[in-house]
Structure formats: C-alpha cells, structure tokens
Amino acid sequence: MSNVKTVVADAVSAAFVLSADLSERVAVAAEMAADASFDFSKACDSIAAVLGSLKSDGVLTFEAWESVRVRFESVAAIRARDNGAADPAGAANDCWNRVDRRNREIHGLVKPKSAKPESVEKAAKRAAEKAKALESAGGRSAAELQTEVLAAYGLGTPEGVAQAKALEKVQKVVATAEKDAVSAQIKPLKSAIADLHKKNLEFAEKHGATMYADYVVFLKDFIDGYESASDQYDHNRVR
To answer: Which candidate, 145, 154, 147, 148, places its Cα nearest to that of 172?
Structure first.
C-alpha cells in the first residue's frame, strides 16, 4: 500500500506544481500550525505544573482550581479579542476546556469537587440521573442505542421523536461511561510508559551517545514490528 501511495504521490507531483506564492503560503501555514501545536503543549504543561504544585502542597481545592481557571480565561479572552474573535469569552473558555481535557488525560489532573452544600446536592442529583440512565440502557452499548435513536426518528411520528429524544439522553450517558471506562484503563498505562521513558533517558544520560542510539533503534524496531503485525491486533481494545 505504501508503494502505491508513493507512485500516486509522484504522479501528482509530476502533474502539478504549486506556484511560488502558494508554496510560500503553505510553508508559512505549516510553520504556524507546528508552532501552535508546540506552544499549546507547553501551555498545557505549564498549567499542569501550577495545578500539580498546588496538589503537592495539599491546597488544590475547588476554589483554588477555579482561581487558576478564571485567571487563565481572563488573559485568554483578551488575547482572543485582540486576535479578532467574535466571542472572546467563549473562545477563552473553549481554550481552557482543551487544556483541561489534555491535562486530565495525560497528567490525571481532575477538578476537585466543591464542598458547598448546594454543589454537593447538585452532584448527588447528577449521579442519581446517571445511574437511572444506565439502568434504563439495560446493558446496551452506545452504538446499539444510537441505532435505536435513528430508528425511532425514522418512524416520523410524534411518539417516535419523543422516544428518540429520550434515548438520546441515555445514549450520551452510556457513551460517556464507556469512554471513562477506557480512560481508566489507559491512564495507568500512559503513566507507566512515561515513567519508563524517563528512567530510560536518565540511564542513557549516564552512558552517553551510544546508549541513546540503542534506545532510538529499540523504539523504532518496536514500532515497526507492531505496525507490520497490526492486522493481528484489535487497536480498539485495551490489553
């Protein structure tokens, strides 16, 4: 397949050549995108360091988390406004949510629950609603429920629409539960990989360039071997 792609790519390259202006615009866009991705990763790690520091000091409360979020969004909103965003506050909140999602997945940083009585009550209500939705799902997967939603909408009747909307709510809860279950399995594996990688780099640091080279070759052989046998694995299953 890779050979076919190469042949096609060569054919396209021979048949079409970008103008100097378009080529430069593509190059600038590529650099901007790469820089943006790198800067975003650094920003996420900086926020993770702040939250991690508060956590290690035992002061990462709901209020402390909110202080970090509010400060982040206030500055992000100004930058979004300067960049011409139609809704600076919304853009800032979207940005924070992306940072939060990445740090939750990579660093396991989760927003603490509020100790306020009204917040505790709302959390209990949400938990009860979630439990009720999962019970009504009757063990059906999110994919199965989605099929039922489409079928109900396909009836084209008021009853069918009402049934579809009710099923949609259940489907969303089940989909979230499935995603959380997979994340719970993957998170410790990611941490283990990160810890081993760190140890390997520290070991290589002590033994010089040869050890670094051996480690690179080892990683490449591992990836190449896994890709060559990819048809024997189910990549959607956590082993």
So the answer is: 145
Query: What is the DSSP code string of 6-48?
Result: HHHHHHHHHH----HHHHHHHHHHHHHHHHHHHHHHHHHHHHH
Of the candidates 134, 179, 129, 169, the one whose C-alpha atom is nearest the C-alpha of residue 149 is 169
Q: Which residues contact 220 (CB under 8 A, 6 or more apart)?
A: none
What secondary structure letter does DSSP report for 233?
A: S
Residue 108: partners with Cβ closer than 8 Å, 6 or more residues away: 187, 191
Distances in whole angstroms, Cα of residue 65 to Cα of each of 28, 55, 62? 37, 10, 5
Helices (H), strands (E): how many in the chain? 8, 0
What is d(CA 94, CA 89) in angstroms, rounded to the nearest whole number? 9
In this structure, which amino acid lies at residue 214? D
Q: Which of 236, 130, 131 is nearest to 182 (CA)?
A: 236
Q: Tell me the per-residue pLDDT of 182-213, one tens digit each, with 9 for 90 and over.
A: 888 887 888 888 888 888 888 888 888 888 89
Residue 167 and residue 149 in contact, taking contact as beta carbons nearer than 8 Å:
yes
Average pLDDT, the chain: 87
